[in-house]
Amino acid sequence: MQADVYGLRKCYGIFRCFECCIKCLGGIPYASLIATILLYAGVALFCGCGHEALSGTVTILQNYFEVVRSPVDTLDVFTMIDIFKYVIYGVAAAFFVYGILLMVEGFFTTGAIKDLYGDFKITTCGRCVSAWFIMLTYIFMLAWLGVTAFTSLPVFMYFNIWTICQNTTIAEGANLCLDLRQFGIVTIGEEKKVCTGSENFYKMCESNELDLTFHLFIVALAGAGAAVIAMVHYLMVLSANWAYVKDACRMQKYEDIKSKEEQELHDIHSTRSKERLNAYT
């Protein structure tokens, strides 16, 4: 008998634990979670691969195009690359925090928070938070579109160089040169170019830096595109959350008016009953 009671208690405890897990899983904002994972993956690819691709670009410019770093007070291509690296550090940190904030907003507008705090708080606070994040996410989406377009430029440049290197046998009879002045990397007065018949050209094509840097820029471009998709996904989620809290606010006002009218009717009936009782007595 005691064993049966113990077994029933154990089964009841397991059932309660399972019910609690189901309730917790039901309160997770899966749409925001998917968008956050996509955002983190895109930002990680863009920042990590972009940083290494910029380092590879410095190596290629110094070793094969013989570009020398200018003095510290001069804004040259190496200084711009260093600035881009610091921008990458800031982007990684900023969007890590922004992803956490959007996840918190997703949890805030779920049914689990509604059960804990009631309709009033979720509609008054959640509506303002959702509207603010919609505006901010839209701005970030436009910014990432610009980043994607900007990242496609080095991909195009390296694709041209990589294509010439892949067709070295065809290009042997032609006098093709890669002039950095065409890409705006150096000033017009500087002549930094590598021609197909030179030793630096063959060294650059046979090295791992060119192939690795080219593919790193491609992955960074894919990461920027993933971040754009994540921003669009966030916009859909935030718009749905805003519509939800807006409807909840209207429902809350309706319930308040309804309860107020019912209370007034109850007071009127109570007053009339007392008046009839007094008149009878």
Secondary structure elements and pairings:
Elements: H1 2-26, H2 30-63, H3 77-108, H4 111-166, H5 168-171, E1 177-179, E2 193-195, H6 199-206, H7 208-280
Antiparallel strand pairs: 1-2
Helix pairs in contact: 2-3, 2-7, 3-4, 4-7
InterPro entries: Myelin_PLP (IPR001614), Myelin_PLP_CS (IPR018237)
Keywords: Membrane, Transmembrane, Transmembrane helix
Subcellular location: Cell projection, Dendritic spine; Membrane
Textual characterization of the structure:
The chain is mainly α and 281 residues long. Helices cover 83% and strands 2% of the residues. The chain has helices at 2-26, 30-63, 77-108, 111-166, 168-171, 199-206, 208-280; strands at 177-179, 193-195. Strands 1-2 form a two-stranded antiparallel ribbon. The N and C termini lie far apart (65 Å).
Task: Label this structure with key terms.
mainly alpha; two-stranded antiparallel ribbon; 2% strand; transmembrane; membrane; Myelin_PLP_CS; Neuronal membrane glycoprotein M6-a; transmembrane helix
Helicity, as a percent range: over 70%
Mean pLDDT level: 78
Question: Which strand order does the major sheet show?
Answer: 1-2
Would you identify the regions where 5 or more consecutive residues have pLDDT less than 50?
none
Gyration radius (Cα, Å) is 32 Å
| Proportion of beta-strand residues | under 5%
Task: Summarize the main sheet.
Answer: 2 strands, antiparallel
Assembly annotation:
single chain
Question: Helices and strands, in N-to-C order?
Answer: HHHHHEEHH
Count of helix runs: 7
Using the alpha-carbon principal axes, give the shape. Answer: rod-shaped
Secondary structure: number of strands: 2
Q: Which structural class fits the helix and strand makeup?
A: mainly alpha
* Intertermini distance: 65 Å
Family: Belongs to the myelin proteolipid protein family.
InterPro entries: Myelin_PLP (IPR001614), Myelin_PLP_CS (IPR018237)
Protein name: Neuronal membrane glycoprotein M6-a
Pfam family, one: Myelin_PLP
